[in-house]
Amino acid sequence: MYEDMMGPVKVGGKEFRVKSIDDAKKLLGMGFSFSENMQGVKPLRAVGKTLEAAGIITNGVVDEAALMRLVDIQNGDKNALAQLMSEKEIDPLDVETEDINYIPTQSMVTEQSVDVDIIEQELVRRGNVDTVIQALDGMDGRSKEFFNSSPENLLKLDEDITSGMYEQIMGSVKYERSLGRLGSMSDMEAYIQLASSQAAPEQSEQPKAQTNTKPSTSKRKAAGITKRSPANKNKPAKVDLVNMSDEDFEQFAQMGHVI
User: What is the DSSP letter of 208?
Assistant: First the structure.
């Protein structure tokens, strides 16, 4: 556990090694804080992507005048509205002021779409986006939907492709499917099942240690016991010290019997 924690870790495509436990704790805390902050930022990223689609943000640069004009219009500023109508060449006579039935024509960018965008950028940074897309193209519809609903799994898919695990397990999937053993399972359902079974440690039964039911030779010698001829049948039965188990032997000795 200690070796794993202090071993090299990859960040931003580069490996570095933590030098102390205190540094490891600090990085762990920073990681949790970063995750919490990202959860709070995610809705804002969705807003940003929506503004990009509207042309108010271009290449990460905000058109502040356009944005603030929208804010003023939202607050009922007539001058801001008039300027927008003039810029967009909207004739005031064409604007209905009665029986207004406004329905938004654009939709807000979803947080899931933001996740996909972030993951795509990471795959591009790794240089593996084409390889992942190629793997997705070869999957059935239900498997593609699996990644659509949980795009974070694309990063795990990329790791498996890079390590060679994906090709190995998908080979097993094709083999099992050819024998009719996978039923109606999707490619990814079968992949996850086979990957889990291969990752699980083999549970082989270990031979049970045999309990020595007879007292050890050293104990018998220490007690001065040797194997003798069977006693006369007419004499009272004696305790069989030779064939007695270690536990019974020690209990017998502790009871104060003379040996």
Answer: P
